[in-house]
């Protein structure tokens, strides 16, 4: 099964959407369940891997065209 990777933009979530929660808490409250995740502090983001594409993700959660997580 092909996994799909997303980038959670911490700056956009905070400044544009006033999200103050931890990314994992925010996505859990939205009912999203991921397989793996990893913070990337130098880029002010987190990477999340999901089993399937997310329908209508929040604007600060961007689907990647390439794989972040290597199998």
Could you describe the 3D structure shown?
The chain has 71 residues and is an alpha+beta fold. It has one domain. The protein contains two helices and four strands, in the order βααβββ. It has helices spanning 10-17, 23-29, and strands at 4-9, 36-40, 45-50, 61-63. A hairpin with a 4-residue loop joins strand 2 and strand 3 (45-50). The termini are close together. The model has no long low-confidence stretch (mean pLDDT 94).
Topology:
Blueprint lengths: L3 E6 H8 L5 H7 L6 E5 L4 E6 L10 E3 L8
Antiparallel strand pairs: 1-3, 1-4, 2-3
Taken together, the total number of domains comes to 1
Question: How does the helix and strand content classify structurally?
Answer: alpha+beta
User: Please, how many helices?
Assistant: 2
Runs with pLDDT <50, length 5+?
Answer: none
Cα-atom Rg, whole angstroms?
A: 11 Å
Task: Please state the overall shape, judged from the principal axes of the Cα atoms.
Answer: globular
Instruction: Quote the beta fraction.
Output: 25-35%
How is the main sheet built? 4 strands, antiparallel
Share in helix: 10-25%
Q: Can you give the mean pLDDT?
A: 94
First-last Cα distance: 11 Å
Write out key terms for the chains shown:
4-stranded antiparallel sheet; 28% strand; 71 residues; alpha+beta
């Amino acid at each position: 099964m092909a996994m799909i990777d997303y980038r959670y933009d911490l700056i956009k979530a905070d400044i544009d959407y006033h999200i103050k929660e931890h990314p994992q808490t925010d996505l859990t409250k939205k009912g999203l369940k991921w397989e793996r995740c990893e913070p990337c502090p130098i880029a002010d983001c987190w990477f999340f891997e999901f089993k399937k594409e997310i329908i209508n993700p929040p604007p600060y959660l961007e689907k990647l065209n390439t794989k972040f997580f290597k199998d």
